[in-house]
Amino acid sequence: MSLDKAETGRLQELLSRVGICLDDYLKFEQADTLTRQDTWQAVLAQPVPQQGVGIDEVTRELVEQVIPNGSPVAKPGFSGFIMTGATSASTIASTAAGIASPQRYGLTAFNLLEEVSLDWLAQMFGLGDMKGVYSSGGSVANLVALGAARQSAFEKAGHDPARDGVDRAVSIYASSECHHTIQRAGGVLGVGRRAIKPIACDNQARMCVDALRAEIENDLAAGILPLAIVANAGTTNTGAIDPLKAIGDIAGEFGIWFHVDGAYGLPGVLDKRLNDLYHGLEMVDSVIVDPHKWLGAAIGVAATFVRDRDLLERAFTQEPADYLEGTVEQSDAAEPKIEHSMDDFGIPYFNYGVELSSPCRGVVVWAMIREIGVEGMRERIVRHNDMAREIAEFCKQHPRLELLIEPTLSIVCFRYVTSTETDLDLFNQRLYRRLIRENEFMPSTTRVAGRLALRPCFIGARTESDQVDGLLQAILRIGESLVTRQA
């Protein structure tokens, strides 16, 4: 039933109330949500209602109890996990898609923008004619890429793993700094988590090529099938970029699928100062990127690119379903005539990955790129990389700060040092907890060569250069306070 004029006006009023509340939230003036925990939990944690309260009451509770008690991730000072608040363009586009195209299928503008935006990403990152598919995040994106790798490796051996299962031992080579979802992908794909062979890294957290070659040669001698090599274009821990060209040469020499995990770091190719580090991308068989990281999309948007998208279809195609076959395709007609948007599925993304039902993600990426263009994206990447470099230089000059590894992208790892402490890991953990509870500057921690590091990762569209000084001064102030208290 369509909305009448009064209902439309009422909906606009409710949306306006929500919008005003969101604007207030984006001022970031509120204390952390845990300071009001008892209040909002008492209101929201109720038994399932037997009778509805109506849209007005729902909106009131959203405005008064839910939105003001949201996540600090969107704050400009949040630099912890590699996630960020959505840009306005992303929010508007995803809202539009949620109403106007609940699914990405059919001959609609939204289906078209899936492909248009994927092509734009490929052009922006120098991926040539690679084709892609969207999914929910880097975990699934890596799974899809390695599914294609599994299909390719076994087909070369005369076997169809998607149809008949895995019939022999394989190895997937990834650096010891790879994201842990690579191991999970091995489990889900049926080759096993233990099939992931960790390759040693150098002192800059980059995969050692000689160690990679030795591991491959050992497996070949043992009759183990090399399935894929996974390289990093920006590791989660430190932002390191593996030697892509050298790894690509080895992949080509042995005929092994070459995959690059660029979930966080692929947009770094826009920083022209780093172009040499991305040489070798032209050799990959697959690569992923998460627009919900550095590009500013709402959480839930990742992309997998492959040289041959037909491999994805063979790896992930579904068996026929009665309720679908013939519903869209006019198979009984000698010359099918398309006269309605649901006469055809459009590009069959459901056969290129693990999702059948899926939101329209392409319109979100399209809107963000359309808004500020490649140059706007480049400016953001360069700004954030500069912020990491500024902290690194400051650490080299300040007696109380120690840089633990040179930054490559927008992640920088350092720690507070003092001669009065025998356990600097514990000291920096206490400093970190104090910093987070101030609710303004929120990096994360990691370990570099066994040492606990403070680890800001600058990717937020709202994160500007003045955040650097604020973060450093807060760390120095808290560190000095902890030293004085223990003196």
Summed up:
By secondary structure, this protein is of the alpha/beta class.
General description of the model:
It is a single chain. Strand 5 (225-232), helix 10 (244-254) and strand 6 (257-261) form a beta-alpha-beta unit. The chain starts with a helix and ends with a helix. The chain has helices spanning 5-25, 37-44, 55-66, 88-100, 109-124, 138-156, 161-164, 181-188, 209-221, 244-254, 309-316, 362-397, 424-437, 466-486; strands at 78-79, 131-135, 170-175, 196-199, 225-232, 257-261, 286-289, 302-306, 401-405, 413-416, 442-448, 451-455. The mean pLDDT is 93. The strands form three sheets. Strands 2-8-7-6-5-3-4 form a seven-stranded mixed β-sheet, with helices on both faces. Strands 1-11-12 form a three-stranded mixed β-sheet, covered by helices on one side. A two-stranded antiparallel sheet has the order 9-10. The chain has a domain at 91-369: Aspartate Aminotransferase, domain 2 (3-Layer(aba) Sandwich). It contains 14 helices and twelve strands. By secondary structure, it is α/β, with parallel strands linked by helices.
Written as H for each helix and E for each strand, in order along the chain, the element string is HHHEHHEHHEHEHEHEEEHHEEHEEH
How would a textbook summarize the main sheet? 7 strands, mixed
Please name the fourth-level CATH homologous superfamily of the domain at 91-369: Type I PLP-dependent aspartate aminotransferase-like (Major domain)
Average pLDDT level:
93
The level of helicity is: 40-55%
What's the helix count?
A: 14
Specify the CATH class of the domain at 91-369: Alpha Beta
Can you count the beta strands? 12
Strand line-up of the largest beta sheet: 2-8-7-6-5-3-4
Q: What structural category characterises the helix and strand content?
A: alpha/beta
Provide the gyration radius in Å.
Answer: 25 Å
Give the name of the CATH architecture of the domain at 91-369. Answer: 3-Layer(aba) Sandwich
Bulk shape: globular
Low-confidence stretches: none
CATH topology tier name of the domain at 91-369: Aspartate Aminotransferase, domain 2
Beta-strand residue percentage? 5-15%
Head-to-tail CA distance between termini: 72 Å
